[in-house]
Amino acid sequence: MKKSFKAMATMTVLAIMASANVFADDAKPAPQKTEMQKGERKNPPKMRMRKMPFCDGEHLVIGQVKSIDESKNRLTITNTDGKTVEVSYSPFTRIALEPTKEEMQAMREKRAEAKENASKEKPLPPPAHSISDIKTGSWVMISSFKMDTKYPSAQMIFVKQSK
Questions:
Q1: pLDDT tens-digit profile of 48-62?
Q2: Percent of the chain at pLDDT exceeding 90
Q3: Sign, Cα dihedral of 147, 149, 152, 153
Q4: Which of 2, 30, 59, 146 is deepest in the core (most CB within 10 A)?
């Protein structure tokens, strides 16, 4: 009886092991975790700070236009501290006026039309503005080139027209 008991126990264990393999094929294996999920990534991705395209922040003037001298190519600005700052401009200075509601609506329509047509044509840049478009009393933000001159030379002038 001892031999038959051992044989029967062995066969039972083998049957259980064989049936476990059959059922195990139906089950999906657990998904493997990535290095990032495990927290083992040696070089995590770097956060990229997006620089402002018009200025590095060191030469930035914000204030209201006090006067415009077109003969000397200078703007006189009263900055937020109440100090008067003179900034020169050149033909290389880009001037961006705040768009009106009508212009904003027209831009939205052009974008929607371009999406619908899926055209690969590049959109036209906004119209160029001149210094004569700036009115005294308007708020401006001016970024300037890094130059060792008496007056900072404006690179970009953003204008919010006063009403």
A1: 544 554 445 457 888
A2: 10
A3: negative
A4: 59
Strands 60-69 and 139-144: antiparallel
How big is the chain by its Cα radius of gyration, in Å? 35
Q: Which two tokens stand for residue 134?
A: 């700036």
In 10 A of CB 154, how many CB atoms? Answer: 25
Per residue in 64-84, pLDDT (tens digit) is 999 999 899 999 999 888 899
Only one residue has tokens 């020169």, namely 88
What distance in Å separates the CA atoms of residue 78 and residue 26, rounded to the nearest whole number?
77
Rounded distance, CA 160 to CA 163, Å? 9
Report the pLDDT value the prediction gives residue 83, as an integer from 0 to 100: 92
88, 152 Cβ separation under 8 angstroms: yes
Tell me how far the alpha carbon of residue 98 is from its chain's centroid: 20
